[in-house]
Amino acid sequence: MKQLAKYSDQAYALLRIVAGFMFSFHGAQKILGILSDFQPQMGTQIWFGGLIELIGGLLIMVGLQTRWAAFICSGEMAVAYFQFHWKFQLGPEFFPAINKGEPAALYAFIFLLIACRGGVMWCLDKKK
Q1: Which of 14, 32, 103, 119 qualifies as a cystine partner to 66, CB 3.0-4.6 A?
Q2: What is the Cα Rg of the chain in Å?
Q3: Can you list the pairs that 108-111 forms with residues at least 24 positions away whose Cβ atoms lie under 8 Å?
Q4: Is the dihedral of CA 30, 33, 35, 40 positive or negative?
Q5: Which of 9, 122, 4, 8 has the alpha carbon at shortest distance from 66?
């Protein structure tokens, strides 16, 4: 639909804002205990992941240092998928529908796209 093409930057900005907000909420659950009974021990791998999610998600949402934040968040989600969901097992465990890794895989690729495109609009990054 060519009529929607003129709104591609706005749709992308909304994707960036919503994905950043949702990701930061995962971090807020881990780091601040918001709406969660689970809080990882400070200094553990999951705690550092929560810190990346909280800070990186907020940076992506507001569009500040967007490319770097998204690149780091994409990497964190790739590690999460391979280490915690797939666990390098042979067989059907590789597939996200089986290992429950859909959110990690999807976030990894969304944040890779954002790392490539940057903030675009409605962001705090300076235009270059």
Answers
A1: 119
A2: 16
A3: 108/74, 108/75, 108/77, 108/78, 108/81, 109/74, 110/15, 110/19, 110/74, 111/19, 111/23, 111/60, 111/70, 111/71, 111/73, 111/74, 111/77
A4: positive
A5: 122
The CA-CA-CA angle for residues 106, 123, 52, to 5°, reads 45
pTM: 0.92
The residues near 76 (Cβ < 8 Å, ≥ 6 apart) are 49, 52, 53, 56
Query: Tens of pLDDT along 1-50?
Result: 789 999 999 999 999 999 999 999 999 999 999 998 888 999 999 999 99
Give the residue among 91, 26, 21 at the shortest CA–CA distance from 58. 21
